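Please describe what follows:
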Amino acid sequence: MDGDLDIPVLDDHMHLDPLVGRGAAAAAEFADHGGTHLLVVNKPSWHLLDDLPEGPDDFRTVFDLTVSVVEDATDALPGRAWPVLGVHPALVTQLVEAGYDAASARELMETGLDVAAEYVADGPALALKSGRPHYDVADDVWTASNAVMKRGFALAAETGCAIQLHTESGEDFTEVADWAEERGLPAERVVKHFSGGRLAGPTKSVIANKDDLELAVETGEPFMMETDFIDDPDRPGAVLGPKTVPRRVRWLREEGHDDALRRAHVETPASVYGIDTEATLDA
């Protein structure tokens, strides 16, 4: 088992399933290998509910489950965990297949984001999560999805928080960053989850593969690291396991990239989310 790395180690995007997954045990594994801080994103609503959400109370159920498992995860960490709450963009497909039109699906998803923003404003959540499908969809669904994402930007600006995005792959998201800026949200507070090492527009949250991390370090730009661990008992270790970020931190340190590690685990989280990973580690 890997030991303490003597620096904050943040996984910027991990899921913990308190119902059928490992939950806080995965956070404990992360800590055992040198991890200190987690941003825990709620799993898609249809994974935690018996059916698709129909209104605000269903989203609250999902968010309350996530807040609860984050509290347990914090107990397992030398630092702490924070919830990131929102609506997975693939919900639009689930809803359309269930009989919603694109406009009605948009309205329900915006309701979910409104509820998530309440959790940020009231304290338990750190940031929002939104995005658009990473696969081909009909034009009306694409338009509705972009509208939902823009609503997320407006809510993040209103509540003074960051927003994580689940989107298609790519390296140029300047248009998306411009949409955020138009709604009063600085582009640096827009985080592209599952990013590669190069990205224009938002802040990149780099999936912790060596090639992507090497490129992110080489650019000299702000970045964070993530596993996108999905905590699914049918897919153990997917996408990357909880120990991956600490191991990549150790590897980057061995390669002499101490400045990049400070950028990824102290400076960028502070500028994007307003969190102090050093002070919370000392606490």
Observations:
- The first strand starts at residue 10 and ends at 14.
- The mean pLDDT is 96.
